[in-house]
Amino acid sequence: MANSKRKLFLKRRLRVRNKLRKVNAGRPRLSVHRSNKNLSVQLIDDLNGVTLASASTLEKDLGLVGKNTLEAAAKIGSTIAERAKKAGITEAQFDRGGFLFHGRIKAVADAAREAGLKI
Description:
Number of domains: 1
Radius of gyration: 14 Å
Strand order of the largest sheet: 3-2-1-4
Function: This is one of the proteins that bind and probably mediate the attachment of the 5S RNA into the large ribosomal subunit, where it forms part of the central protuberance.
Helix content: 25-40%
Order of helices and strands: HEEEHEH
Keywords: Ribonucleoprotein, Ribosomal protein, RNA-binding, rRNA-binding
GO biological process, one term: translation
GO cellular component, one term: cytosolic large ribosomal subunit
Family: Belongs to the universal ribosomal protein uL18 family.
Strand content: 15-25%
């Protein structure tokens, strides 16, 4: 029986998340979600189950509403790094979910690294 795209995506997401759990040394997880219209990023503390910081293209103060480009992804990456610094976080695990590490996902990670977040 052939798997649907959604099932394959969910399998890939669980595989990535399980690998992160094995190597995570108490660091927060930088989780990225990409849709066709928007991009959102969260810093999650899995030990306590709380979100420490977040950034999204839906935030009006960033001026990226409705933009889903590489430039918007880079802006989100640098924004989440700044908010992480304010929260006292200097390093995190990058959780790409079931998405492949290229394009907008890679742009978020690169921008966060350039802004000083150790991934």
